Amino acid sequence: xxxxxxxxxxxxxxxxxxxxxxxxxxxxxxxxxxxxxxxxxxxxxxxxxxxxxxxxxxxxxxxxxxxxxxxxxxxxxxxxxxxxxxxxxxxxxxxxxxxxxxxxxxxxxxxxxxxxxxxxxxxxxxxxxxxxxxxxxxxxxxxxxxxxxxxxxxxxxxxxxxxxxxxxxxxxxxxxxxxxxxxxxxxxxxxxxxxxxxxxxxxxxxxxxxxxxxxxxxxxxxxxxxxxxxxxxxxxxxxxxxxxxxxxxxxxxxxxxxxxxxxxxxxxxxxxxxxxxxxxxxxxxxxxxxxxxxxxxxxxxxxxxxxxxxxxxxxxxxxxxxxxxxxxxxxxxxxxxxxxxxxxxxxxxxxxx
Length: 353
Prior knowledge:
By secondary structure, the chain is α/β, with parallel strands linked by helices. The chain is built from six helices and 17 strands. Strands 12-15-14-13-16-17 form a six-stranded antiparallel barrel.
């Protein structure tokens, strides 16, 4: 069949394209231009060098290659939201929005316009029997970032690497003689090449006075900060206050610009909004929740609709407002859906060590 491959210029999407060519498919490579961030640092994606790498691989494979300019859409859907969420005292995950609002919507529409029957990416995930599933190698699984993709996109989505380990992917890249076989993995966040999200927010919102105080759980002032959006709930390192024992960020108030620190935040539930389900679990179904990429699966019950009341059956830490909570079926492999954490509820003070 004709398959469009989203080629980032990295080893994963390049191998996905190469394997599909080997299987006899008519493959077309698409690379998205998303931002103007430039860097020579290894471990970034979607920059100018990556477009050249993707084109070089396409040439090696003998497939057509096109660059799609999504800068305006990416700015509006991802970057502007990134800034707005930090300004609200929350911690966004731009990769979730990029996949849900752009890659598996806009790019898939471009693929269909090219007459493709499917679109493939280098994600470590699987689609089986119309369901989004985790990858075989749990350490590389990226299903956490995919919960916002439309259910209607699943029949047209292919993940050629979903049953492979990273070592196997590297071996295929070497076997195929791909120029990116030894290229370092890309890391988030692609449009923040220096890992300084504070700079990005400050440049976008120079009018925002974000300085304030750091207080303990009694309300006593224990320090000052220059920007509340420098912090994230659950953070331990880099708080800038030494109190003789580990302290964690418990909450962030963007109105008063106050950052509250205290004991490691354990909770028995969260309120979450913006829920999207591929399959809504029944009331008594065993469900697992993941609060961060590669985080432990926490057994839970889901109640209500908007907001969702997610009740953990075991205490969980650092449920961070703005981050995704992704739900998995009792098999721990089927992705049921997800939502965005609004706030933690039901603190578990008595269970702290």
